[in-house]
Amino acid sequence: MTSALITDFYELTMMQGYFLKKHNPKVVFDVFYRTNPFSGGYTVFTGLEEVIDKLENFAFSEDDIRYLRSLNTFDESFLKYLSSYRFSGNIYAFDEGTTAFPGEPLVRVESSLMDAQLIESFILNTLNFQTLIATKAMRMTYATRGKGAIMEFGLRRAQGENGAHAASRASFIGGTKVTSNTYAGKKYGIPVSGTMAHSWIMSFDSEEEAFREFAAIYPDNAVLLIDTYDTLGSGIEAAIKIGLEQKAKGKKIGVRIDSGDLSYLPRVIRDRLDKAGLEDATICISNDLTEEIISTLVNDGVPIDSWGIGTHLVTGGSQASLNGVYKLAAKEENGEFVPTLKLSNSSEKTTNPGIKQVYRFFDEHDNALADLITLDDETVDESVNHTFFHPFSLGDFFVMKKGAYKYAKPLLSLKMKDGKRVSPARELREIQSFAADSFAHFHKSYKRQINPHIYKVSLSRKLKDLKLDLMLKARGEN
Q: What per-residue string of b and e applies to 176-186 under the rule 16 or more CB within 10 Å gives b?
């Protein structure tokens, strides 16, 4: 069971209000975000499978009910309702791991108003955090240009036990190869890895003794931390000595650097290792790495085989959160769904009304060209031109001519029906592979760290007309 108390208190007070007033129409909510994190060009949509797993088991325990009763806020009839509560709505969503963009409805919740209100905080907390971390991991993975694996270290810096596990999962989807968190390895099947801390070395009389003892215990995973005292002195000298002993036994070593000049030191160490006959020894670096540092070192040709990333990956680094939101898009009136619109003085905060779909257009080489947000009853015919309207400036548009694209793919599909998943859960490695494939369809100009090209996300003519009509009505101009 997943405790349904993982929600904001005001969701429960509103839910009770709907219950007592018998006001519980069917509704449609959209989950979307407004700007890309890290001043980037994309996100990696992540967290969906965990949302579905937990929603299937979303409930209030007897202890939860006792706690709510103790707050002296809730009516007994409402508490009785909660005691047998189960989520019974439908969820449409992008496939987890899809490369996504601002304004797109990544998740569509179709349910009763009470259902939709209760799950809001849980959905946003899960998707916002995991999408942020997966996006950071993808950015760091892309920064290596294939020059070594990203290893996610330092999960103790993530926020709490659940935050650490979620960060590990999201990091793996974004492209990391291993995790340092043992429980995350067990729970998600992610390969686990670890080297040693400075305390291991300091507990022995010398680095040589510390390295030899470690290599004896872990001959197939002897990565030696060489910067406890003198990286280019006693550290690398002891590592080379143990490396040669291991080589005589048919084994390899690696060295890790956790401090100092990470451009200069690996070059010198690579040269020292090679001259000693340890050409197959690997070099791992850590030490508060950012994607900017990784990109600089890769572009400078520094010989690094793997990257141990901690704080700047599992906490989101420079960005604390994704600005994902959850907004009402339609509500039932007289047996039919009526589109709703939240108006704002800021054009980017005026929502897109109605029940929607997103189509991604591809060329003959399977390169993604642009995304089109449509109403759900619209279809895309590859034999005709399609007009793409700017999502905020409703007068701006361009025409996607029929010869300029080969096909268009809908991105939203049914994931839960009546509170139950409609297909088996995907394995984490499958999601990681899918994320890499989705990302590969985009030109490198959308992926660069600085001033990425803006990927086009537009509105269909029908959705644009509906939005404009509702805006004018809301302002009393129609």
A: bbbbbbeebbe
Instruction: Please tell me the distance from the alpha carbon of residue 202 to that of residue 205, in angstroms, as a whole number.
Output: 7
Please count the helices (runs of H) and the strands (runs of E) in the chain: 15, 23
d(CA 431, CA 95): 9
CA-CA distance, 184 to 162, in Å (whole number)? 10
DSSP assignment of 139-200, as one string?
Answer: HHHHHTTTSSEEEE--GGGSSHHHHHHHHHHHHHHTT--EES-HHHHHHH---B-----HHH
pLDDT > 70? residue 162 = no
Return the closest-CA partner of residue 125 out of 161, 168, 176, 163.
163
| The CA-based dihedral angle spanning residues 223, 224, 227, 232, taken in that order and rounded to the nearest 10 degrees | -100
Query: How many angstroms separate the CA atoms of 227 and 286, rounded?
Result: 11
pLDDT tens column, 260-289: 999 999 999 999 999 999 999 999 998 889
Tokens standing for residue 9 = 């208190």
Name the pLDDT band for 315 (thresholds 50, 70, 90).
Answer: confident
| Residue appearing with tokens 């975000």 | 33
Cβ proximity of 330 and 324 under 8 Å: no
For residue range 234-251, what is the model confidence (pLDDT) as tens digits? 999 999 999 999 999 999
Q: CA 290, CA 368: separation in Å to the nearest integer?
A: 28
* Residue that wins the pLDDT comparison between 205 and 182: 205
Closest to 47 (Cα-Cα) out of 186, 151, 174 = 174
Answer whether residue 80 shows pLDDT above 70. Answer: yes
pLDDT at 310 over 90: no
Model pLDDT for residues 408-434, shown as the tens digit of each residue: 999 999 999 999 999 999 999 999 999
pLDDT for 163: 62
Residues 164, 127: contact at Cβ < 8 Å? no
The string of DSSP codes covering 358-395 is EEEEE-TT--EEEEEEEETT----TTS-EEEE-SSSTT
Are 22 and 87 spatial neighbours (Cβ–Cβ below 8 Å)? no
Cβ distance 276 to 247 under 8 Å? no
DSSP label at residue 459: E
Strand-strand pairing, 253-257 and 324-333:
unpaired
Integer Cα distance of 214 and 347 in angstroms: 60
